[in-house]
Amino acid sequence: MTDCPYLPHSNIAYIEQTAPSDYCVVMLHGWMDNAASFTPLLKHFTDVHCIALDFPGHGLSAHRQGYYHFVDYVDDVYRAICELKVNKPIILIGHSLGALVATTYAAAFPEKLLGLVCIDGLGPLSLAEEETTTQLTKAIQQRQAVKPAKGFEKLESAVKLRAQTNGISERNSQLLVERAVIKRGGLWYWRHDQKLKLSSPLRFSESQAENICRAVQHPSLLIAASEHPLLSAEHISHREAWFKQLKTHLLSGGHHLHMQNSVEVARCIKAYIKTIV
Asked: Rounded to two decimals, what is the model's pTM?
């Protein structure tokens, strides 16, 4: 496994696990996570060529000059895949925000993909049209209140905080934190861009989100968490109907079940891959 600082043109960091597989798995992490969130899963795919990206503002990737808009993450994935020059079919695996981006990418560029796996996230976030102005006002006002990150005297403090916040083990938290902090002046600071915490001024409408999901052509897989789920049963049932071919599996674990329950998540993904390659 190699850990490359940056793609030279897009300034996107990534982790690559090389293998002679006929396809490449590209992994997209969740909001405020980084590529290391897939480390437990990668251990079950040692015979597969895998690339896990750090989205801009996350992990070791550069921060954006401006603000963070959802559609720009789709562009990031497109540019990264082009820059990596992956000359084999691609399967996208996305967790949370990464799943929303992966779904949208699959809709926009179906010819570049072999399959789609979503982990506790499905299709882009949507907003009722009558809430458009309220969302815009809130997001712009938030931009005036961005605060600098606070430092930790001990790395262990950041690990414990992340474990408590996400309901994961300190071992898994350590994986995320080591790629998410930097030491300055004797203190540990989060690397992530503070602007990531700001609300988006614009979101897709429900009909636009539906249009995107209906445009996904490939057989797809949703793996959802059974404990403290981010996706309600009603939300899953509602959106399942938008996909041409989507299989859903409910597995034990919380929102970071790909870290907490990597064995079962890997088993589910491998079974899916056998149906499409």
From this structure: 0.96
